[in-house]
């Protein structure tokens, strides 16, 4: 187990989880649990990993120093993918002080038996002098749990923001320039779309707060994925843009079908969008003859789309279960929190009184999406006139987003 040097006296000592494929409701190609060792006259360990990865983290620490030389532990976030190794570390290093927020202290006691732990509460602006290395703490509640905080290493201008600016990817690469900026940004975009969207107003506030501190940030070392050493400015700008809802002239169409009628409508709408020269993604939800698109990949497409159209046939006065699950996921993410609002509508087919389109548009409104056009639904299979109307709906949506 080898560590990786970020700067003199600063090392990555985390763990790589090559096997994880689903987390927080979305798919991923594995991940990393990033922990960092900062060594001045004293040594600090920042963050940890899931229980079960203790040997890997300790092995990387030993490539730098004896774990017994660790003088303090910083817990930026108590979620178990970062704190799961903490009980073993405390057992091996009894009496080592743990620095965290007030809420983190309370949260740790709900996850573990903290009897005898030396927990020291810090607040924004508090510092920890390691002798030649100085850590400054910045509370960041709800980025993405109430206990979260950032840690800043002034001498090397490194920000340790825990989950902020992270990505779920398992790789031999530790840095953005090693993985490649396009791949790094793609993973960061999916991470933001599936975890950070509900927190967008808080992201903007925290970025503004960090900016007002006037601190130099040359490297960003998150708790998952690669470390931003060559493109720190780019990921900061991307977070600002994504939080504001900066989007393309792009439409995302999401649907499922029973006997193909809703597919016919989706294709006709898509043709109308393309006729206007607007970018487009069409996502079938269901697994069956086709693999389907996972909801986590769909919301990643929605992040930089100006319009979302959702289609479903009516089943017992409701949407299909696959569509219902997607809409529930979307409501939780609340893309309407973004500054730039998205537009959308529902479409579908029915054999009786219908109901699916109304349910879709209600859910879109609850997700903060501006519903336009009053929905579009047909009885049984669409005829040529109805397909033409679906085509025109696609054109109108494309024209609307171009005008915004």
Automatic annotation (TrEMBL):
It comes from the Archaea. One of its GO terms (molecular function) is electron transfer activity. Transmembrane segments: none annotated. Gene3D superfamilies: 3.40.50.360, Ribonuclease Z/Hydroxyacylglutathione hydrolase-like. Residues 251-398 form the Flavodoxin-like domain. InterPro entries: Flavodoxin/NO_synth, Flavodoxin_CS, Flavoprotein-like_sf, Metallo-B-lactamas, ODP_dom, RibonucZ/Hydroxyglut_hydro, Rubredoxin-O_OxRdtase. Coiled coil: none annotated. PANTHER family: ANAEROBIC NITRIC OXIDE REDUCTASE FLAVORUBREDOXIN. This is FprA family A-type flavoprotein. It comes from Methanoculleus receptaculi.
């Amino acid at each position: 187990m080898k560590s990786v040097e970020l700067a003199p006296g600063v090392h990555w000592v985390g763990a790589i989880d090559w096997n994880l494929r689903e987390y927080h409701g979305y798919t991923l190609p594995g991940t990393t649990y990033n922990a960092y060792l900062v060594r001045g006259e004293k040594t600090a360990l920042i963050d940890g990993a899931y229980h079960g990865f203790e040997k890997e983290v300790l092995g990387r620490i030993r490539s730098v120093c004896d774990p017994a030389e660790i003088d303090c532990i910083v817990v930026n976030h108590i979620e178990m993918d970062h704190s799961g190794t903490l009980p073993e570390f405390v057992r091996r290093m009894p009496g080592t002080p743990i620095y965290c927020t007030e809420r983190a202290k309370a949260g740790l006691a709900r996850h573990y038996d903290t009897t005898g732990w030396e927990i020291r509460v810090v607040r924004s602006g508090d510092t920890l002098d390691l002798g030649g290395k100085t850590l400054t703490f910045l509370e960041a509640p709800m980025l993405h749990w109430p206990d979260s905080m950032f840690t800043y290493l002034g001498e090397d201008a490194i920000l340790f923001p825990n989950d902020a600016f992270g990505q779920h990817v398992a790789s031999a690469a530790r840095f953005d320039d090693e993985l490649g900026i396009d791949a790094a940004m793609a993973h960061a975009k999916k991470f933001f779309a599936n975890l950070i969207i509900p927190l967008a107003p808080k992201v903007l506030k925290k970025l503004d707060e960090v900016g007002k501190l006037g601190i130099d940030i040359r490297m960003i070392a998150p708790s998952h994925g690669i470390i931003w050493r060559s493109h720190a400015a780019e990921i900061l700008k991307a977070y600002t843009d994504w939080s504001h809802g900066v989007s393309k002239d792009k439409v995302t169409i999401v649907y499922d079908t029973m006997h193909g009628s809703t597919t016919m409508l989706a294709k006709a709408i898509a043709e109308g969008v393309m006729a206007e020269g607007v970018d487009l993604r069409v996502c079938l939800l269901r697994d069956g003859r086709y693999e389907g698109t996972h909801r986590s990949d769909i919301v990643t497409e929605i992040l930089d789309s100006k319009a979302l159209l959702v289609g479903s046939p009516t089943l017992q006065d409701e949407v299909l279960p696959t569509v219902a699950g997607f809409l529930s996921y979307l409501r939780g993410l609340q893309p309407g929190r973004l500054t730039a609002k998205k537009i959308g509508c529902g479409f579908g087919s029915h054999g009786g009184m219908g109901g699916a389109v109304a349910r879709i548009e209600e859910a879109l409104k609850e997700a903060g999406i501006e519903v336009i056009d009053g929905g579009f639904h047909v009885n049984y299979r669409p005829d040529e006139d109805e397909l033409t109307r679906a085509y025109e709906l696609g054109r109108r949506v494309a024209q609307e987003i171009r005008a915004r």
